[in-house]
Design a protein that fits this description.
- With about 190 residues, the chain is an alpha+beta fold.
- It contains four helices and eleven strands.
- The chain has a six-stranded antiparallel beta sheet, with no helix packed on it.
- The longest helix has 9 residues.
- The N and C termini lie far apart (about 40 Å).
Length: about 190
């Protein structure tokens, strides 16, 4: 077998409404848009593939390279890179989210992966916070009432964050990134909410 040579990747840029300018100004990320919310650094996901920017595969997507050389994934993968690594710049609060687990996603979302995430905080403005679950246990009836009366925020747990904090976001955990936070996110290769 021919020895694999290392290569660099160019990320897929995402310009969502809540994005900022720090990924460009402080991390040297490139984009043709004014705001840059995310860069998908290492991705084979169809919504944002990384592109090889050096070496013999230059110009191909990472997914194309892995189709040519499935052995690069080792023996534990089924043909796709199971993770996605991204930078996120939250200039304003992100929406409150919850992600499905693998079982639910495979059953209800065309055999996709669920979504577990790990956040590493690169930067946090003074008083920056994340939403990380509920303040206390809440039953289905309370949750439905809170959602229908727009009172959900009073049940959420807001956690102040600082540089170098790490948070695991398991499937099913209500969460959101607050304004003024830049993170590296390592997640399952999924774009489900």
């Amino acid at each position: 077998m021919k020895k694999a040579l290392p290569f660099l990747l160019s990320p897929a840029p995402k310009d969502y409404l809540w994005g900022g300018t720090r990924l460009k100004s402080e991390y040297g990320k490139q984009s043709n848009t004014k705001l840059l919310a995310e860069t998908w650094e290492c991705s084979t996901h169809p919504d944002g593939q990384s592109i090889v920017s050096s070496g013999q595969f230059q110009g191909l997507s990472l997914g194309e390279v892995l189709k040519i050389h499935p052995e690069y994934l080792g023996t534990h993968s089924k043909g796709n890179l199971p993770i996605l690594i991204k930078f996120i710049d939250a200039n304003s609060d992100l929406s409150i989210q919850v992600h499905p687990d693998d079982y639910y996603a495979k059953k209800n979302e065309d055999d996709q992966l669920g979504k577990a995430e790990l956040w590493y905080i690169l930067h946090a403005d003074k008083n920056a916070k994340i939403i990380y679950g509920f303040q206390r246990k809440i039953d289905k009836k309370q949750l439905e009432y809170a959602l229908t009366t727009n009172a959900i925020e009073k049940y959420l747990q807001y956690i102040p964050v600082k540089k170098d904090d790490v948070y695991f976001i398991e499937p099913g955990l209500v969460h959101a990134i607050g304004a003024g936070i830049v993170i590296v996110e390592i997640q399952e290769s999924s774009n489900l909410l």
